[in-house]
Amino acid sequence: MDEREERLQKIEELMKEPDFWKNKEEAQQIIKEYNALKDGSTSSGKYDEGDAVMTIFAGAGGDDAEDFARMLYEMYGKYISQKGWGVFVLNDNENTQGGFRNVTFEISGRGVYGTLKNESGVHRLVRISPFNAKKLRQTSFVMVEVIPKFEKTGDVEIADSDLRVELSKAGGAGGQNVNKRETAVRIVHIPTNLSVHVTSERSQGQNKEKALAILRGKLYHREEEERKKRQKGLSVSATTSAEWGNQIRSYVLHPYKMVKDHRTDVEVHDTDAVLNGKIEVFIEAEKSLE
Q1: pLDDT digits (tens, 9 = 90+) for 50-80
Q2: Are both 8 and 109 inside the same structural domain?
Q3: Which pTM was predicted?
Q4: What is the CATH number of the domain that holds 216?
Q5: CA 221 to CA 155: how far, in whole Å?
Q6: pLDDT per residue over 149-169, tens digit each?
Q7: 3 state SS of 231
Q8: CA dihedral sign, ordered 105, 106, 111, 114
Q9: Structurally, how many domains does the chain consist of?
Q10: Is residue 46 in some structural domain?
Q11: β-sheet bridge partners, residue 149
């Protein structure tokens, strides 16, 4: 509460400055934060009321993991639709069977980041593999990352010397639809090896701008995770991999049906409902722990 009041006072002082509206975009973001703080809806962070960027990465499990990434993409898509939020795909790396090696998309709407930020982590699937001729049970893993969507100006500064920018041609369906210009942009943050790949915009400059904004969000997310680890007395150098032992939630479809969140112990046996976007019970339970 003290931090909230302190931030409110700081914003009120900023709003009194004669050049407050000099940067209209930044001023609007500050007012948005101020209004959210006033109605008490951002008790877990200043970006909670804003938009988010979600990335789903296939981990251990081969074809099954990439298919699981597709399943989670569809699950979140249905949840997002139920909430009336918007979705815009920034980049996807699809395999020949319809699964995703990775997919990144923006989610727009009020309170998106605050609602979905705790979905970050490793998700585990247990089922009879549709890719195995012997119909054996397969365990696969997917990493979900949710970061705040940063505007052009953000709280995270990045030195140009810390960046490596790679350009390539954006993918197309072939023929006249192939993009012959190098508009796709991949940016690597050299100190952390974090990378962002954006192909959604028509120009190289737009893709680069969006990639930088996402990179700021990734760095912010990384700092938040390290802060939480320090609070728990954990090593900040430890990284989470999408494999056994790190899962936050398990989706078991065989030999029984259950989705269990390992942080809150919430269990749901209607797995079809969960995979069709009914995930509010997990989200609300995790919020209660904040």
Answers
A1: 999 999 999 989 999 999 999 999 999 999 9
A2: no
A3: 0.78
A4: 3.30.160.20
A5: 12
A6: 986 555 678 889 999 999 887
A7: helix
A8: positive
A9: 3
A10: no
A11: none
227 and 241 in a single domain? The answer is no
**Domain that includes residue 24, residue range:** 2-38
Task: Please give the structure tokens belonging to residue 51.
Answer: 């938009």
How far apart, in whole angstroms, are the C-alpha atoms of residue 84 and residue 106? 14
Q: Give the pLDDT confidence score for residue 180 in this predicted structure.
A: 46
Q: Residue 140: beta bridge partners?
A: 125
Residue 120: give its domain's CATH number.
3.30.70.1660
Token pair, residue 167, equals 């350009």
Average pLDDT over the chain, rounded to whole? 86
- In terms of phi and psi (left: phi > 0; alpha: psi -120 to 50; beta: otherwise), the region of 111 is left
pLDDT at res. 244: 65
pLDDT at residue 240, as a whole number: 67
41-45, 100-104, 173-177, 245-249, range with the lowest pLDDT: 173-177
176 in the same domain as 117: no
Per DSSP, the chain holds a count of helices (H) and strands (E) of 7, 11
E-assigned strands of the chain? Answer: 52-58, 86-94, 100-108, 121-128, 137-148, 163-168, 184-189, 194-198, 247-252, 258-261, 267-268
Residues 118 and 223 in one domain: no
The crossing angle, in degrees rounded to 10, of helices 2-16 and 24-38 is: 140
Question: Does residue 75 sit in the same domain as residue 216?
Answer: no
